[in-house]
Amino acid sequence: MAAQSVQISSLLEKMTSVDKDFRFMATNDLMGELEKEALKLDDEIEKKITRTLLKLLDDKNGEVQNLAVRCLAPLMHKAKHGNVDFIIQTLCQNLHGTSERDRDVSSIALKTAVSELSTQLSSVQIKDILGIIFPKLMDILRGNGQHDSAFKIEITDILGILITKFSHTTFINFEEVVDVLFYQLSKDRQSLRKRAITVLGQVSEVVEDDVYCDIVNRLYEGIESGSNSVVRAHVLAASTVSRSGRGLKGRLHEFINVLVNYCRETDDDELKDACVHAFEVFIFRCSKEISPFLNEIQSICSEFIKYDPNYQYDDENGDDSMEVDQNDSEEEEDDLDDYSDDDDFSWKVRRSAAKCFEALINYRTDRLGDHYNQIAPLLLSRFKEREENVKIDIFKAYEALLKQTRLYLPEKLAQFDNSSNISPFTTIESKNVIYTKEFARKVLDEETDNKQKTVLNAYNEQVSKCVKAICKQLRSKSPNVRLNCYSLLIHLVRAFPGCLENHFDVLIPLIQSSVNESSADNATKIDTLQFLNLSFCSHESQVFVPYFDSLVEIVTKCVNESFYKVSAAGLIVLQSLIIVLQRTGGGSKYLEGIYNVILSKLVVGDIDQEVKERSIAAGGVILAAFGNELSPKLPELLPLLVDKINNEITRPTTVQAFCVIVNSAVIVDLSLILENLLLQLSDFLRKNQRALKIASLSLLSSLVTKYPLGQLPPEGITKVINELPPLISESDLFISQLSLRLAKDLTEKFPVEMSGSLGNIVDACVTLANNSILVGNLLQWAVELFTNIVCENIPGKPQFLALMEVLTVQIYSNSKICTRQTYQSVAVIMAHSTKALNNHEYTVKIISGLVNLLEQNQSDGLVLFALTALGELGRIFPESFAVAKINPEELITASFNSESEERKTVASFAFGALASGNLEVYLPALLNEIRNQPTRQYVLLHALKEVIASQNPENHSSVFDSAVDDIWTVLVGHSNSNEESTRSVVAECMGRLCRIFLDLLLPRLIECSTSGNAKQRSTAAGAVRFMIVDSKTSSNDALRENLGPLLRAIDDDELDVRRTTIMTLNSAAHNKPRWIKELLPTLLPSLYRETEIRKDLIHEVQMGPFKHIVDDGLGLRKSAYECMYTLMEHCLDRINVSEYMSYMEKGLQDNHDIKLLNLLMLTRLAQTCSAQVAQKIDRFADLLAPLLALKAKESSVKQESDKIEELKRACIRTILSLKRIPALDRSARLQHCFETVQLDQKLKGILESLEKDNTLKLLSVHNQDIQMENDY
What we know:
Region (Disordered): 315-341
InterPro entries: ARM-like, ARM-type_fold, CAND1/CAND2, TATA-bd_TIP120
CATH topology of the domain at 951-1093 and 1100-1135: Leucine-rich Repeat Variant
Keywords: Repeat, Ubl conjugation pathway
Low-confidence stretches: 316-340, 425-431, 1255-1272
Family: Belongs to the CAND family.
Strand content: under 5%
Shape: globular
Largest sheet: 2 strands, antiparallel
Distance between the termini: 64 Å
Mean pLDDT: 85
Helix content: over 70%
Protein name: TATA-binding protein interacting (TIP20) domain-containing protein
């Protein structure tokens, strides 16, 4: 501390030196010291620094003055309140200095100081500071002619900063501020008006309603009368004020009428520009209120977008000429020769009209069909615009139309979008459907409703005209215009795949010309390549056959570019082109040239990493597509790829390239490198790189299954096998799954080599089973592994019973009950292994052991396992009971009498599994048990559910068909049970059964849905949910047609029926969104109604000495908000986002769980509908602020504290999403929320962890990993 004081004192002494260089260096060093967070100043030093810096503001050297001003910023964070007041007071006094230079320096310094003031000051401190500053600012801004405009602009900026920081206090006289700002609007200096308008917008966001109404009224009065310049200023101010989200207080129609009159009558182009800009903002902020005026606004924009009085467009030949009055004098003609566009402001009018059209398209998606008929042709006709900036805005407006159209595209067609420009590694090996016209036609017929068809048909009618207009612009010399043309083409294809198949004859020569031009810039080349890549993916390959010469030339030229980004993009497109060549069978002619281009990149070691990786990928793709034709080149290419696999950086990409090669339809001879490759891959299995392990395991499995036994060296295989056991663990289930699959493949082909590590692999697999992790595909590979071990001749393998003992040893030795999944996994493996071996002696011993466990009534865990195993044997190997001569039904049903609920539940699933394997014997018995055992109904219904779930809707048993009436009768009889759990099981059974026998049972279900019994109606509504999930039967049309009447139960009088129906609607929105889109206009009002808090459902319950508030409507509201979230994800194009957000506002004030759900909804909506969210950003900020201030009571339990912590974390995540919306940095309320987070240490810690998590997530995303995991 003492050393710092000495050092600073020395600097202060130098700052008073007569040498300007000494003063400059000392001030610079002082700023460095002040910026150190650890610096602590005592009162004396702080006082000296303050006075010295203020004195330097009068320094004669400008550089020293500038540095002194900058030094004030860190000082404001260190200085105590007294010195802060002194700084502010001194600077305010200097504002009235006699020298203009001193006033300017003081205003800049004051602006710097005010900017650094903390928003967390006490009310006393804020009052003192505002008491010093505000009177001075008001006096200066009221002064008429005493100060120049530049000085007043700085003062106005300071006023804006103060309002932004301290608007939440009561120390600002907003009426006085408004008076001063309106006074500035009457001034001639345009820059001063703009600053005043900006500050007026900030004021309008924070003032009370009475002041806000006064602002609106004064704006209207200013617009009605005054000079054009004053009117224009008030129009711009009205636009800014309306952005506050509070509208124009019911006077919007008056503003619109006045502005429309100005548009029709005035000759002032800048005023017209301001009026149309106001229309754009009103569409953006007042989307409901402006609806009656849209036609008028659209008419004005249609006129103004063509408004170019000084220019004439010749539509016939495309030549443009200036319009000249022939009667003017010779001198006037000379003036016209000197004509400059600087005197022409009509371009502003056209630009505003284009932007207004874009707003109409973006914010009124309900009029998209009309936009195609009315706006689209007009925009296309204006592509010939002479002003480049206006032309780009017209392009953007048409691009917005295409983006909105894409929302109407069925998901099956949207999958052909490759606009992200990713490598088509997975295109060769993926299971995606290749685009064809027949496929597109089928999807349009089956997957689209009338509204989608209307929009897409209107789009298709525009394609030819749009392409023609774009082609004209592609000849432009302006790189910016060409760049935007390619952006339009990309969005044109994204809106509907296959749309350009008849236009490539025109487009390809233009593309070739633009790429070959010496003046072509890199950005245009990259966009060109992106367009080609998207076109290859979204059109039939045969379309490109006539243009292969040009395409190969274009792409190879780009690959050879010196700029690495162009070269990398070219290599991606080259991969797509190779695939197109392979599909058409016309690649042989170009193969040599393409191969040489790829080889030239592979042999260079010092190229950019991105180019290096994509050249490796291209090498893999060309071998996968043309491996036979390139067989003479293998000795040259394969060693290069192996060399890349030795490099740690290029290793993952190279392994994936080999995956593509091995998984292709062509069998490429890899004998030259296989031994080395296997050794390398076995080493990679030990690396701590997940992506590398996944790729290596996939490649090894493909090599083992595809290549003949003699080509794979045993030494390499043995080394690979030794690395497998550690990979089969719960730490990474996907890697475990791949490892089990590889182990299964190796037991088939290399039983001798497997013998050494077999025991370790089996132990690892058993560990997974006992940890309840063997499920889904993981269980499938484990089953196949064990059946292979049982059936294959592996040296030294354990006998069957010994293997089963290893499998069950942890269950038998564990006195505690394991999870049901553990018993299920082990039982499934045991049943499949017993069936695979099919040995009479071993089958009897297995079943006898299970029967003994039940008869001896061993520990609960063993009994549960025995029941599960008997059930799985009955499902998988029903013949085994005849071999063992036992009656499993008696053994299982006896457990229904147990006092243990867990035992009864497991017995029910076992009985269901048993009946699934032998319907003829056990299904009648099961139905009889349900009828005659009322006390066992719940568990027996679970057994029936297992039977129904086991039936394939497309191919079900005739025995099951004959029993369907009996099953339905049983279910209907229990559909009005008083137990909700029983009704849930019945609903699932009825739904699954209806899915199998839709035509027969759907009318009966509809009858149940209109029953007089509310419980039966609720059960019927729940049954529909299970009909929709995974419904893939050919008779779906019947369900779709009747879905509307079934979902009308959302208006039922009974709360439980409404809740179940909303859950069904949620399921439909998630699984079959296109089924419900046409129903949403009638369903959404009912859904929104259920988000309301109903006081009649809230009551008080006495619990001993305590009173507890119970909200019976909470579950219903939660279901409603969950359904709203699903609709946002899948049916956003049919939702009025503004109305939707009004219910989100209520949700953010509801129960804890509902708040969390609405925060998630807001986060998602900020990404998908940022423009609409921006309309209500201040309202949302007001709702988020209280969540950040929540604190747990001192007496609260840890669970309550954790809930508050969870809510704050979700709130901060939402704030981060809102901050990413463009132009929202001007929202003072959102910024205040963000500053609250930054100033609170706990909240700041959450913020930093979220930002770190987001960064790691972005870094860890690997397209190939994701695709591979999806494939499995």
